[in-house]
């Protein structure tokens, strides 16, 4: 149900939006600049690891992409936070970025270190595009122009006008907790039935801005997709989980972080819409931790988020494709494995994928209960 209060807590009375929880502490541009000067590990952020240790990029399974089983959730990782989800006869893209750089220009800015597994035109006809927020590594001008106006676009508040400027006409602009019941289909013959999905715009802990003057002016979000057969999918978007101000914590990775407040939104999402059959949760772009923790999950945070939303199976994203922060490019899955073991989980519960790889989750014939987090 949509928030019906006159002024929701995440709406800034002065305009724009805020993170309304103690788990978020704002770090301005000067803080990030200070981190780059004092703490940034130039070696890991500028020098790539050996090609053999980087994420493999697999050829797309064309036959499965064009004829997916509509009873399954079929997920293909396109790199970073970009995914193709195929379910209930629908082709759904999340945060699609196919450009070479995630930047306002294509001759400067963070450059892709792993290629996409295909071109936009190689994708099956797209019914729905879900965009979590307006950062360049999640909302890309060139990709949206290539996709064109045919799909429905679901975006958080404040992004409709920007999409309209690109020629997009079918837009659902949503606030946190808004629900949209969509009937979609792009079949060549008009006699084919439409396919349903409920899209829910849900909170996460982040910020927005495509320049230094528009920070927090548009909303950021995660999204839940609920299908008629009962399957549930969660896309966490780009998010932090807590704020770690003590720089020692990122060095020791001890339990001291558990004394800091965590974002309560994820447990609420799990209570309202979980358990989820499949989730995509960010695990990268977290270092220096004392700067990026408010807006980016570490692998340890990601495991806690997985528990909070009551996900049966999760996939790590937001790593290994662009160099945005200074942790080693291949470190996130290593830390994820350790964090899973510490919390009593395995890779069957929370895994990473190769770029271009496909994961399927069959519809369950029995009701599976995922306990609420302790």
Q: What is the first-to-last residue Cα distance?
A: 26 Å
Domain module tally: 1
The CATH superfamily is identified as: Ribonuclease Z/Hydroxyacylglutathione hydrolase-like
By secondary-structure content and strand pairing, the structural class works out as alpha/beta
Write down the CATH topology: Metallo-beta-lactamase, Chain A
What is the overall pLDDT average? 89
Q: Indicate the CATH architecture.
A: 4-Layer Sandwich
Count of separate DSSP helical elements:
10
For the CA atoms, what is the radius of gyration? 19 Å
Helix content: 10-25%
Strand content: 15-25%
Give the overall form: globular
Keywords:
20% helix, Metallo-beta-lactamase, Chain A, 374 residues, Metallo-B-lactamas, single chain, RibonucZ/Hydroxyglut_hydro, seven-stranded mixed sheet, globular, alpha/beta
Mind sketching the topology for me?
Elements: H1 29-38, H2 42-46, H3 62-66, E1 72-79, E2 82-87, E3 90-94, E4 128-130, H4 141-147, E5 152-156, H5 160-165, E6 171-174, E7 179-184, E8 195-202, E9 222-226, E10 232-235, H6 247-252, H7 265-273, E11 278-282, H8 289-292, H9 299-308, E12 314-317, H10 331-342, E13 350-351, E14 358-362
Parallel strand pairs: 3-4, 4-5, 5-6, 10-11, 11-12, 12-13
Antiparallel strand pairs: 1-2, 1-14, 2-3, 7-8, 8-9, 9-10
Helix pairs in contact: 9-10
